[in-house]
Specification:
This protein is α/β, with parallel strands linked by helices. It is built from 14 helices and 13 strands. It is flat and about 80 Å long. The model has no long low-confidence stretch (mean pLDDT 87).
């Protein structure tokens, strides 16, 4: 790629203290040397100097990284200039006039992949770090970016390779009577691999919650204080609250960060029989929100009746400021609150947090937080199950085919067996300049 040098703004566009313009490729240092004076003598050294552009100059800093010891694996230069669209824009135009071209989204990271500096799961960890809104999501992104999932899948692939070798040895040397001996060994190994994949697949639900947050539907009858509870949980007057039954006609979704996790609250229309067409639509949406939620907060007034649901539920007995709570024995999944005065709201948040054991998620845990990875693991699990079933019903060459399918499917996670289309699709998710 000597004659394919790319350049782009790596910091967010708009006004700011500094802007970083990144350039990578065989001519990066040559082009930079025509703009910046004077160039650092050593790589990895940030130096103050002057950038000379068309009609004006500016004080700036520059650092370069020699191939292959750079993010992209190529010669890379970073200009640190004054922020704002003006200087950075003129600097990029100058680089282009001297032979660079504008990078496309994710092209720096894609070059890092092509040059062996990262794999696809590392890259998706970077995306997750950028998109993270909670500390748990940041931890999961760092875990993925550091290569833990890649190492685990490579280990399972190595175990699958051993199984393939066992099968092929039995097929190639039938006179040695290896078939009968190998089937027992292969079954044990495949069972262990299936168990590893099953444990990994089981983590996907926790991973989804870590990445996107816990989806919590607030449901109940009219006038029990659902919207007041939402406002109390958010700490702001987000939902309209009146004494008129049926005030809430639609779902309203808002999020907060509690400790290191994200909670997505969905306020819903009150449940009751009504002839009002619009209110009926709202009630239908309320029921769908409850069906799709990870958790239901069933709000009731005092000791009122609860709503039936198959989802995990916390019974929120509201208006404790108006009702005598003496003599009402609460179950483990129940709590008294006063949405009006904010009583026990923090305790309710803690109860939600504990419900999903989010505090037990460790930094070293390998958890599937990416839907693509979860699909790959599920498919690999299916192929291994097919291989186990085939051991009892067919020949070893059919077993081998299923094991190879599992190996190839796991390779999609790191990119070892991924098509160019998959690779392009992942890197297109990156911002320009990354």
């Amino acid at each position: 790629m000597k004659d394919n040098t790319i350049v782009a703004l790596s910091t967010p566009p708009g006004r700011g203290a500094i802007a970083v313009v990144r350039m990578s490729g065989g001519r990066a240092k040559e082009i930079a040397g025509k703009i910046f004076s004077s160039m650092p003598k050593e790589p990895n050294t940030l130096k103050v100097g002057k950038i000379s552009l068309d009609g004006f100059s500016d004080r700036a800093m520059l650092v370069f990284f020699d191939a292959p010891r750079s993010y992209t694996g190529e010669d890379t230069v970073e200009f640190h200039c004054h922020g704002g669209a003006g200087v950075a824009g003129e600097l990029i135009r100058k680089c282009i006039s001297l032979g660079a071209r504008t990078a496309v989204n994710g092209e720096f990271s894609k070059r890092a992949f092509l040059n062996g500096k990262q794999n696809l799961s590392n890259a998706e960890g970077i995306i997750q770090m950028i998109d993270a809104e909670s500390r748990l999501a940041l931890k999961a992104g760092e875990n993925l970016m550091s290569g833990r999932l890649g190492k685990l899948t490579a280990k399972i692939q190595d175990e699958l390779t051993d199984v393939i070798a066992e099968c092929e040895a039995a097929l190639d040397y039938p006179e040695e009577d290896l078939d009968v001996l190998s089937r027992g060994q292969i079954y044990c190994k495949l069972s262990e691999i299936y168990g590893s994949l099953n444990r990994l697949a089981f983590s996907a639900e926790t991973g989804r919650i870590i990445s996107g947050g816990v989806n919590i539907a607030i449901v109940g009858n009219t006038n029990v204080g659902k919207s007041s509870l939402l406002n109390a949980l958010l700490g702001s007057e987000r939902a309209i609250v009146t004494d008129i039954a049926g005030t809430t006609r639609d779902t309203l979704k808002e999020s907060i960060i509690f400790k290191d996790a994200k909670f997505n609250f969905i306020d819903t229309a009150g449940l009751r029989k009504t002839e009002d067409y619009v209110e009926k639509l709202g009630i239908d949406r309320a029921q769908r929100a409850a069906e799709q939620a990870d958790l239901v907060l069933n709000v009731v007034e005092g000791g009122g009746e609860t709503v039936k649901t198959d989802k995990p539920v916390i019974i929120v007995r509201n208006k404790m400021d108006k009702i005598k709570t003496d003599g009402i024995c609460l179950k483990e999944n129940e709590i008294w609150v006063s949405a009006l005065y904010g009583t026990n709201i923090e305790e309710l948040k803690q109860k939600i947090y504990d419900k999903f054991s989010l505090g037990s998620v460790g930094q070293d845990d390998t958890i599937l937080t990416n839907a693509r990875h979860a699909d790959c693991v599920e498919n690999a699990k299916r192929f291994v199950k097919n291989a186990l079933d085939a051991l009892d019903t067919t020949t070893l060459d059919c077993v081998t085919a299923e094991v190879r399918n599992a190996w190839n499917t796991l390779g999609l996670i790191t990119g070892a067996t991924a098509s160019e289309e998959i690779i392009d699709r992942i890197y297109e998710k990156f911002c320009l300049g990354k």
